[in-house]
């Protein structure tokens, strides 16, 4: 119901401002991911390894969104901060895994296939006893 | 180990139910859920992807078509073609910079702008979430000096949590009269589905 000829009332302006701010914090996720990818490229010098590590982000997103839906939280700034923290930890575990497998590949014996080395590395990552 | 440490250290936030904990819960929620699913990826799928990459490499060494493609690529690298292309592009460097800058500008602009009716519609509707009455008048008078009513609607929470929040706001200088407690009951009743504990939900409704 339009009672005056103002384009936006003060309340609607506040609402739009809030939406814009939420959008900004959502864009922070993509910026954080871009920075993480560049850092991975600098550290590993390999696009395929970096992509493999970055692929843990959508998998982390699956669980995060599921639990958020289960508990019924809306997408507030707090939740977005939680997501950024989640990506950090997920990528960290991915990095550890890749490093273990790379080490196993580097010191594999001549009669060992690559597959054996990969299995060795990932088992070593799972229970670290050596 | 890393995953277990992270998840278990965040569990107390999820299971405890004191005042003020509602602020920590949204931060902990995606982290816990995501750790569990990303562990499955890291521990099981990364070795499998390595194995698949190994297969692809072996296929490239064996299959004739892949060998042909590699030979074509080597020829290209040996020939003068890429250098010539670079030389041709070099004159148009400024245009290239402009294009790249424009693409970066597009990609970094935070959100795709929705159409104006799509923005106004929810903004008009969201204030109607609270039923009309003296309580809404109080909220309009005191809460809206700092934030919109939609911020209250999106927050959710239990009665204890709301009392805590209101106390904090009063400490920060809000002029809300303390005897308007039914508002907080109204809030937790309206958003009962967001409350974790259904027991608290029933208390709020009574």
Keywords summarizing the entry:
heterodimer, A: mainly alpha, Multidrug efflux transporter AcrB transmembrane fold, 5 helices, elongated, B: 206 residues, mainly alpha, 0% strand, disordered C terminus
CATH architecture label of chain A = Up-down Bundle
- Rg of chain B (CA only): 29 Å
What's the overall average pLDDT of chain A, rounded? Answer: 82
Main sheet characteristics of chain B: none
- The backbone outline of chain A, from C-alpha atoms, is elongated
**SSE topology string of chain B:** HHHHHHHHHHH
CATH fold descriptor of chain A:
Multidrug efflux transporter AcrB transmembrane fold
Could you characterize what this model shows?
With 130 residues, chain A is an all-alpha fold. Chain A is built from 5 helices and no strands. Chain B folds into 3 domains: 21-78; 79-109; 128-205. In chain B, helix 2 packs across helix 3 (64-78). Chain B is elongated, with a radius of gyration of 29 Å. Chain B starts with a helix and ends with a helix. Chains A and B meet through helix 1, helix 3, helix 4 and helix 5 of A and helix 1, helix 2, helix 6 and helix 8 of B.
Précis, in short:
Chain A is mainly α.
Summarize the topology.
The complex is a heterodimer of chains A (130) and B (206).
Chain A: H1 10-44, H2 47-54, H3 56-71, H4 77-106, H5 114-126
Chain B: H1 2-15, H2 25-62, H3 64-78, H4 81-90, H5 93-108, H6 116-126, H7 134-142, H8 149-155, H9 159-171, H10 182-190, H11 198-205
